[in-house]
User: Which sequence fits this backbone?
């Protein structure tokens, strides 16, 4: 590779994809073929014929784009930018600088994201342990963000739980389902809370430590100190 950051596009029509980032520059593929590209990136294709799993080892810090029609995607180790899309299957990413994960049917789980973490699901849950910022769109299923500076969450039905650091803007829009945002005990965020049909509880005094804006049609809103 003659570029500063190794870049990989990984495709598997049907079957699970497992990507493991390890220190060093070596690339290993089990269940597919490697095709170097003119732009310096590497294309990894799953084996033709039938539903087979694809295992890929990439250098630590590499940028990856992963696509599969059906089958789960599991990314372990430290990667740079991770863009993952599948029509049917769950997505799990352990650690990345930035994340863009999209699945029609399946859950999205992200451990640590240093930058922006985007997740789009139609039917399935979203779990983000920590991120600088999170952007989540879901139709049905729970959304849980453990620790975040800023977030925007849009969901139709399902519980939303966000652990806000009260340093940025947290915005949640939901049709039905409980929305709970917690902030550190010493923080006093500016809050704007509105529910057409549902109770509202806010344990934090109004202040200037970030902004929390929550709107629901029918559902409970809670802003808690932790």
Assistant:
């Amino acid at each position: 590779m003659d570029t500063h950051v190794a870049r990989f596009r990984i495709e598997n029509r049907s079957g699970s994809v497992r990507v493991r980032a390890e220190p060093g520059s070596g690339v290993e593929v089990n269940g597919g073929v490697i095709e170097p590209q003119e732009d310096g990136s590497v294309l990894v294709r799953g084996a033709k014929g039938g539903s087979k799993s694809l295992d890929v080892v990439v250098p630590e810090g590499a940028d990856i784009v992963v696509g599969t029609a059906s089958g789960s995607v599991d990314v372990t180790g430290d990667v740079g930018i991770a863009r993952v899309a599948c029509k049917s299957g769950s997505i799990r990413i352990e650690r990345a600088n930035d994340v863009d994960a999209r699945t029609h049917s399946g859950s999205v789980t992200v451990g640590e994201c240093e930058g922006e973490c985007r997740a789009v699901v139609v039917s399935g849950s979203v779990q983000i342990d920590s991120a600088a910022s999170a952007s989540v769109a879901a139709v049905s299923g729970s959304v849980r963000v453990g620790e975040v500076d800023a977030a925007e969450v849009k969901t139709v039905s399902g519980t939303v739980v966000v652990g806000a650091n009260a340093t940025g803007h947290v915005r949640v829009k939901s049709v039905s389902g409980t929305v709970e945002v917690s902030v550190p005990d010493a923080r006093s965020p500016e809050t704007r809370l509105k529910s057409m049909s549902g109770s509202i509880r806010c344990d934090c005094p109004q202040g200037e430590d970030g902004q929390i804006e929550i709107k629901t049609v029918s559902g409970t809103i809670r802003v808690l100190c932790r």
